[in-house]
Design brief:
Order of helices and strands of chain A: EHEHEEHEEEHE
Number of domains of chain B: 2
Helix content of chain A: 25-40%
Strand order of the largest sheet of chain B: 7-6-5-8-9
CATH class of chain A: Alpha Beta
Order of helices and strands of chain B: HEHEHEHEHEHEEHEHHEHHH
Radius of gyration of chain A: 16 Å
Number of strands of chain B: 9
CATH topology of chain A: Rossmann fold
Number of helices of chain B: 12
Strand content of chain A: 15-25%
Largest interface: A-B, 20 and 23 residues
Number of strands of chain A: 8
Oligomer: heterodimer
Largest sheet of chain B: 5 strands, parallel
Radius of gyration of chain B: 20 Å
Largest sheet of chain A: 5 strands, parallel
Shape of chain A: globular
Strand order of the largest sheet of chain A: 3-2-4-5-6
Number of helices of chain A: 4
């Protein structure tokens, strides 16, 4: 494992193996909470929620052969639903792709890498309402770093990371940031 | 991007960005709730000094799908017909705190005047000025062509340009702001453009435009065309005789049934026929051509809403104050 790509003020808090174990556990938790694989849809929030959702789907399929990992994963772009659109430089919206089954009456599990203020999840909930009416919406995140600004909590958490708000939590995945595959905390200035 | 005034000064990056954003916007039309909250609380004024149905409705639909408030302002029946100047009208809109002004004006350059005069703070979108430019029409044409071109080349349209596409634009180029905007934009996106028109309907200086010019539609088609765009014969601007008769025009420069059939014999099975509307059926385009599977006329209308949503979103979301500060920094350095 290379540590050369991380700066002197950063430390690795989850290795690739840690991420894999956390996702395996979350996959089992999802199946347990849902009492099986029926009606499950995983919606990943760009950028890193989507590859995480794909990984989770493969883990679900490994546990329950009735699941087709290609058919339960979707991509949910929340750009247009953010509450800071007029305070940030213009963001270009990205694609939203739902599984062919749609999300009506499904058990939707939102997947994201880091849960922080909760504002992205609020935007995601608004986006979902415009796309259909799921039976249940749950939230799975790889890292919960605290500092919530809205009454939102995750149902499935890979790792609770107490952080200072000046610190930065960077999730690096092979799919988006390869070859790095870990979670790093960087000290703030 | 602060205003959208012309395609001549629109860079490739900005153009592709608008088309890519439009691609995402078009998905909204297929959804259960055809609305996005992105421009909630923003006000868009449609300021139309010239008659237009489809452009105004298209802008109105675009703004409403983004949850903006829309005020329609037609010069007919307003104080403009009592002699109010553009400046006074603009300042009235400013006092009503409009965030964007979509302007259609009979005078070329009116949108530039509005944008650069300092009369208003709002973003200005040119919805057609005189015989100058109509940038959103060119963008929606390019969007339609890009979808077609990507489907033919079997690649994703997002991020792509129009390199290699052969476009012919035929008809009343002299009075056409659509032709002008298309020539600049299509050049920027890498397509090659041929203008086809009777010599009387070509503007002075057309030889300096970044395109080919031809007087003969049949020979242009014979050389191979991927997108054939017919322009409307603008009877309301025809204050001189530009061609002997409508029949002669239709026979020489109109896309009639004979030319529609010739596409098949020339082996151009994937050529699309475009028209910005409103069509003069039987004059520049025959009914058979307008209703054929090659025709993209209705797709163009549909894509118009997506492209205008993209333009309004990119102009109005974002921290406009910050952008203005950046602009002043750039201009002062």
């Amino acid at each position: 494992m290379s540590t050369s790509s991380t700066g002197p003020t950063s430390r690795v808090v989850l290795t690739a193996a840690d991420i894999d174990r956390a996702l395996t556990r979350i996959a089992h938790e999802i199946l347990e909470a849902n009492k099986g694989p029926q009606d499950l849809v995983l919606l990943g929030i760009p950028r890193r929620g989507y590859p995480l959702a794909q990984r989770l789907a493969r883990k679900l399929a490994a546990t329950d052969p009735g699941i087709d990992p290609e058919r339960i994963v979707g991509l949910l772009d929340v750009t247009m639903f953010r509450d800071d659109l007029s305070r940030q430089p213009t963001r270009a919206p990205g694609p939203t792709q739902l599984p062919s089954t749609g999300i009506d009456n499904k058990v939707v599990v939102l997947v994201d890498d880091v849960l922080y203020s909760g504002r992205t999840i609020r935007a995601a909930l608004d986006a979902i309402v415009d796309l259909g009416r799921p039976r249940v919406v749950r939230l799975a995140v790889l890292v919960d770093r605290g500092h919530r600004e809205l009454p939102i909590r995750a149902d499935h958490v890979g790792k609770n990371l107490p952080t200072a708000s000046a610190e930065k939590v960077r999730v690096r995945l092979e799919e988006t940031d390869g070859p790095a595959n870990d979670v790093v905390i960087e000290a703030g200035e | 991007m602060r205003h959208l005034l012309s395609t001549e000064d629109l860079g490739r990056g900005d153009a592709v960005r608008i088309l890519d954003t439009a691609e995402e916007m078009s998905a909204v039309g297929d959804r259960e709730v055809k609305k996005l909250p992105a421009l909630r609380g923003r006000t868009v004024v449609n300021l139309f000094f010239e008659d237009s149905t489809r452009t105004r409705i298209s802008f109105e639909a675009a703004a409403k799908r983004l949850s903006a408030d829309v005020i329609n302002f037609a010069a007919k029946g307003s104080s403009v017909s009592k002699g109010e100047s553009l400046k006074d009208t603009a300042q009235t809109l400013e006092a009503m705190s409009a965030d964007a002004v979509v302007i259609r004006h009979w005078a070329s350059g009116a949108p530039q005047r509005l944008a650069n005069s300092g009369w208003i703070d709002a973003a200005v979108v040119n919805a057609g000025d005189g015989t100058h430019e109509h940038p959103t029409q060119a963008l929606l044409d390019a969007f339609t062509m890009r979808r077609h071109w990507s489907r033919l080349n079997r690649n994703a349209s997002t991020g792509a340009d129009l390199t290699g596409l052969r476009v012919a634009i035929a008809g009343d180029v002299l009075h056409s702001r659509v032709a002008r905007s298309n020539v600049w934009l299509l050049r920027t996106l890498g397509a090659s453009v041929t203008l086809v028109a009777p010599p009387t309907l070509l503007p002075v200086g057309v030889e300096h435009w970044p395109c080919e010019v031809s007087y003969d539609l049949d020979s242009t088609l014979a050389k191979g065309v991927d997108a054939m765009m017919m322009l409307r014969v603008q009877a309301e601007r025809m204050n001189a005789s530009f061609f002997p008769s409508a029949r002669e025009y239709a026979r020489r420069w109109g896309f009639d049934d004979r030319r529609l059939a010739s596409l098949d014999s020339l082996g151009l099975k994937d050529t699309i026929i475009m028209h910005p509307g409103p069509m003069n059926r039987g004059l520049e385009i025959s009914s058979a051509a307008a209703d054929s599977p090659r025709s993209t006329v209705l797709a163009q209308v549909r894509n118009g809403v997506s492209v205008r949503m993209a333009a309004l979103y990119l102009l109005l979301s974002g921290d406009t104050r910050e952008e203005r500060n950046e602009l002043t920094k750039v201009s002062s350095s």
